[in-house]
Design brief:
This protein has 202 residues and is mainly alpha-helical. It has ten helices and two strands; from the N terminus they run H-H-H-H-H-H-E-H-H-E-H-H. The model has no long low-confidence stretch (mean pLDDT 87). The structure holds zinc ion (2 copies).
Amino acid sequence: MKIRKSPKIQILNRKVYILREYYFNIVKRRMNQKERRKEWRKKNREKCREYSKKYYEKNREKEIKRRMKYYNKEEHRIKMKEWREKNREHIREYERRYRKKYRDRDREKYRKWMKDYRIRIRLQALIHYSGDPPKCVCCSETEIKFLTIDHIHGKGKEHRKLVGVNFYHWLKKNNYPEGYQVLCWNCNLAKALYEICPHQVK
Ligand SMILES: [Zn+2]
Ligand SMILES: [Zn+2]
């Protein structure tokens, strides 16, 4: 014997069915939209970039605030660190490309920036090894242009050759290792030539 559903239930079932269809369609449409948007973004990458740049400039204060809110969260920081470690190659590649672009766009500006950077990390290293303001350990010379980093146990020349042009950058990268001190060029040269600076002999 077949059980017939009451008309009321039939109507209800029909309603549920229509409603389900309706929501399903919405979800489907949204998904399609998402896909399409993604594709569009891929095709118009330059445009998107420009747009977000404009948006950022317009809402600078607000954006900074919003980003800082994320930035201050410990959780976010850990996540970012993990991401950076995972995508190290990608980041390096990106930085290289960015540097090249920046360099090509304005060579004069880049040169100035590099010069400033070199001065800055040199000063940082001097301050780390002798305090602020930096001075020669031997004769207390304080003119920064006269100061240099000295390898306490010698062999500085070979080490510098090994490290390359940017010795100060190397120091910073290696968290300022021990075995270095600040000397002025005079004392540094005297130490190299006579093993002990004349200031110390008297
Ligand atoms: Zn000196
Ligand atoms: Zn000296």
